[in-house]
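hey so i finally got around to running the thing on that chain from the lab meeting. sorry it took forever, my laptop kept dying and i had to restart like 3 times. anyway pasting the input first so we r on the same page abt which one it is
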Amino acid sequence: MRPETEAELADMIASASAPICVKGGGTRGVNLNGDVLETGGLSGITLYEPGSLTLVAQAGTPLAEIEAALDAEGQRLAFEPMDHRGLMGTSGAPTIGGVVAANVSGPRRVSVGACRDFMLGVRYVDGTGTIVKNGGRVMKNVTGYDLVKLMSGSWGTLGVLTEVSLKVLPKPETSACVLIDGLSDADAVQAMAKALGSPFEVSGAAHIPVGLDGHPVTMLRIEGFAGSVAYRADQIAALFGGLAVRVERDADAVAKGWRWVRDVEAFHGQSGDVWRISCTPSEAAVLAAKVGAEALLYDWGGGLIWARVTEGTDVRTRLGLLDGHATLVRGTGQAKFQPEPGPIAALSRGLRQKFDPKSILNTGLMG
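ok and heres what got predicted. didnt touch it at all, straight out
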């Protein structure tokens, strides 16, 4: 199934009685039983107003098309969505609907927020075939259900997105990256917290225990006007006097390094399962030690741990009780998402029953 209009999509879902697997660009490796419903026919930027920092696009619009339009106006999606293709070994083109449905957010989330925080409005078709619109084209207070944020991260289980409205931001004039070599995981987490807690506006904080040269490196990104970036980079470097600190000031090199973090390039072409662990940053090093991973990458100042483990390993059994959650990003034979506590699971079931009473949308993906 490949609808060309929202009305066609609504008719398809209204008449469906068997499970439907919603597919955007197919880059995140989600394969479910059921008839495949491709959103690629719902494509195109329907409104872009650079002066008001607002963009509206149909859900099947390739992310590259959106980023090209924004770049031409010196703007960007500030939440820095990850490209999963290298990690997952998939092809296709990421779509904006897929980004929103999975709430895909990159390293800049630690400073500006997630994809859902930039959502202004959505249009979607629920499991009964009803077309629903929520939100608008400006930020405003919400009463009742905030369906815009609810749909962001629902993975197509509550409805099939047809159109999204987003707030965009200007691109910075330049960027720099403070690099600290040789820190242990625990010391790196402390260093990232210190930098993020400083007044120098760090827009990314990551640590890789085994960098490209085989040694640990901690990365602290600064963005903005050239004079401000130069000053703030020097000030952050001074915070870590006595350590092996260097500053990368070439903006292209900085961008390349943070794409490496964003797309978890260290795991590309490497065997094993990949888990994504969201946790309290102060607990990151202890939790990572419990995982016993073959490779690790810390992002969001330690609030996100990427772990590559032996195939078939369920890291949830190793982590035990966790103030956060673990998600299987790449692997087979296990549930993708961590089971929710009883009360939350009951709430989730109630929402799915309300939005998808026939239980046909991406059935089984989220429990």
